[in-house]
Amino acid sequence: MKAIIILLLLCSLFQLNNTKGFIQEERITDQDLLLSQSTLNLKNIPDPTNYIRKLEKLSEIPIIPNSIVFFDLDETIIIPKTHFIYGIPRSDNFTSKLKYIYSDSMYKNITKQMENIYYSSKVELVENELTLSFLDQLKQNNCTIIGLTSRSYNEPHTQDLMQNLERLNISFTKTFQPFSYINVEFTNGIIFSSSLNKGKVMIEFLKRAEYTPSNIVFVDDTLSKCQDVFSILKYLFFPFTVYNYVASFERVTYEGMLFQFAELMTNFVPKMN
Predict the structure, then answer these.
(1) What is the pLDDT of residue 272?
(2) To the nearest whole number, what is the mean pLDDT of the chain?
(3) Which of 65, 79, 158, 196 could lock onto 141 through a cystine, CB 3.0 to 4.6 A?
(4) Contact 124, 81 (CB under 8 A)
(5) DSSP symbol at 39
(6) Which residues partner with 245 through β-bridges?
(7) What's the rounded mean pLDDT across residues 255-271?
(8) Radius of gyration from C-alpha coordinates of the chain
(9) Positive or negative, the Cα torsion across 28, 30, 36, 40?
(10) % helix, strand, coil for the chain, step of 5
């Protein structure tokens, strides 16, 4: 009965439909570079949003041999089997509306439980075997593949992340020496950027690796991260493409969130009191 009441209450706030997630294109503003201009070849691009491409399938990316390809990890390569995923439009929209139902303290407890479910859920590939197939094609074309995550290397769930990648047969290029600076750690082909600007971190990696790319590709499900990278790469003469990859968005549905949320409230709320 309690679950039914919760569902009815939430249904009054959420419109159930099958429309695709909406991504708002925002204009990118220039950011101060960590690198001195003497190390960069400057150029101007008039409209940055035209050069961030929406991507629904990895197979839509043209493979250019010898490119270096940077992949975000969460919701780009891997995704947990839950509807509670911060950063996905439907999930964010759902969570924001909970503020109108619950007190601040209750809201914090609920979102904490959602976070716990996120990290404890089984992890799978965003496009299943198609993800592996595309990575294999990149390797066959002599492409360098680097993971670039906003996570911190020292956070509690890093070991789980590494184990999940190994279990799913995901591997990155490991020919570069590990390094660390500020809060950034590079190891096993993955850059842990600790939420720093990924564009700046990417350039720092290329400098430390002494690697001059013939072509750069960046893939991330978060538009703001794509904007960060574009705001840096647009100053370089290296050819590059930034992809806002939205395949994970369709994994989250309002119907699924409602039923999972009702289950959460039934099972966990009594423990909060």
Answers:
(1) 53
(2) 84
(3) 65
(4) yes
(5) G
(6) 55
(7) 83
(8) 20
(9) positive
(10) 45, 15, 40
Phi, psi of 190 (to 5 degrees): -120, 130
Nearest to 61 by CA among 115, 134, 118, 128: 134
- Average pLDDT of the segment spanning 240-249: 96
Q: What pLDDT, in 10s, does the model give residues 203-244? A: 999 999 999 999 999 999 999 999 999 999 988 888 999 999
Q: How far apart are CA 38 and CA 36, in angstroms?
A: 5
175 has a pLDDT exceeding 90: yes
Q: Supply the angle between the helices 104-120 and 254-272 in degrees, to the nearest 10.
A: 110
Residue type, 17: N
What is the amino acid identity at position 109? N
**Residue 35 in this model has a pLDDT that exceeds 90:** no
Q: At what angle do helices 2-11 and 254-272 cross, to 10 degrees?
A: 130
Mean local confidence (pLDDT), 74-93: 94
In this prediction, residues 92-112 reach a mean pLDDT of 92
Cα–Cα distance for residue pair 172/180, rounded to 1 Å:
18
Classify residue 148 by burial, with Cβ atoms within 10 Å: 0-12, 13-18, 19+. Answer: buried
Can you read off the two tokens belonging to residue 202?
């990417």
DSSP 50: G
Determine contact, residues 230/38, Cβ cutoff 8 Å: no
Q: What's phi and psi for 216, nearest 5 deg?
A: -115, 135
In eight-state DSSP terms, residue 74 is B
User: CA angle, 246 as apex, 242 and 252 as ends, to 5°?
Assistant: 160
